[in-house]
Amino acid sequence: MTELILPLQRLVEQFRSLPGIGSKTALRLALAVLDMSEERVEEFAGALLDVKRNVRECARCHNIAEGELCAVCGDEGRDAGLICVVEDVRSLMSFERTREYKGLYHVLGGTISPLDGRGPEKLHIDDLVARVESGGVREVIIATGSDVEGETTAMYIARKIKPYGVKVSRLAYGIPVGSDLEYADAQTLTRALEGRREVEA
Amino acid sequence: MTELILPLQRLVEQFRSLPGIGSKTALRLALAVLDMSEERVEEFAGALLDVKRNVRECARCHNIAEGELCAVCGDEGRDAGLICVVEDVRSLMSFERTREYKGLYHVLGGTISPLDGRGPEKLHIDDLVARVESGGVREVIIATGSDVEGETTAMYIARKIKPYGVKVSRLAYGIPVGSDLEYADAQTLTRALEGRREVEA
């Protein structure tokens, strides 16, 4: 019985299909489910189905939403003149956690990556352009990653929306706050030097 | 919207209740579920319910089983005179992976740990004693861990079953195969010295 019994094997495969979960972890999780009460497992299964059935995409920015618009787009107190373009919902959540950003978002759903067959038409770029075109937008912050795909995507978007006369910006790169210089890689340090600011005293 | 919308929050909590899954991983997994097709999510939910409903405990050794007995206990080719006592099903699977062990098992369901309020009565010890008592058992290998709880449990079980005249053994401790001496801790090295074997040449 080196093979798992079928119901367990099926559950292990389900867990293993999740990102970052290997075979050992998948087995550990599946065995943990076996140890749960039937009521707990029903709750878990219910939560899975519920999330898929009751969570949708914001019609404007593609953030997750319960209704037509997400909580950010539905909040009249946010600055509609500022759009922060992110790769995915997790990046959006990171910005929200700062509690400092008061503008709106636009979730691309990834980056341009010709090698993986992901051209710009697979991302929510057209409707970002439409949002800018419809007016009222002052600045677009492109917060895609600093890897090749992220930079390529940022460049592509910048070229598409600059003609509409909006300011287009990228995040600042530099030393993480609280981090020791010793641990900064050469590229980060170079960017930190390039972006140095004069001390006002 | 620093708070997650409710259906997502519920799913994050479900994932977070699994062993070894923190808040960040739970969020990552929940968002991955959002990205799955509805069909895939239904499969996942089905696998969860299925494992709980169709997997049970072997009536003899408490391994996981589809029927009355597990695949090991139901295999007539195994040596019924040898029982390997393990803490949990994962340990049993590790032994099965060696493809060398041909005896049966007994899954305790944990270790004795007075501090956590786990006395011997919470483990499947009584029916291990009953198996030994009913005869036909030659040797019991107690493969609980080498931590205090594991050693205490091994000692407790040894005292319970020795009166029936069976051989009781523990696994050998020593240097892991392929590992450098440099990385062996003092305790392991001491055990390896104690357990040294004469070279036959």
Note down, in words, how this protein is organized:
The structure is a homodimer of 201-residue chains. Chain A is an alpha/beta fold and 201 residues long. Chain A has two domains: 6-54, Helicase, Ruva Protein, domain 3 (Orthogonal Bundle), CATH 1.10.8; 75-198, Dna Topoisomerase Vi A Subunit, Chain: A, domain 2. In chain A, 41% of the residues lie in helices and 12% in strands. Chain A has seven helices and six strands, in the order αααβββαβαβαβα. The first copy, chain A, has a four-stranded parallel sheet. A two-stranded antiparallel ribbon of chain A has the order 1-2. In chain A, strand 5, helix 6 and strand 6 form a beta-alpha-beta unit. The termini of chain A are far apart. The model of chain A has no long low-confidence stretch (mean pLDDT 91). At the A-B interface, helix 1, helix 2, helix 3, strand 2 and helix 4 of A face helix 1, helix 2, helix 3, strand 2 and helix 4 of B.
Report the sheet with the most strands of chain A, covering strand number, pairing sense and barrel closure: 4 strands, parallel
Low-confidence stretches of chain A: none
Q: Please write the string of helix (H) and strand (E) elements of chain A.
A: HHHEEEHEHEHEH
SS strand fraction of chain A: 5-15%
Per the CATH scheme, the topology name of the largest domain in chain A is Dna Topoisomerase Vi A Subunit, Chain: A, domain 2
Q: What is the rounded distance between the termini of chain A?
A: 74 Å
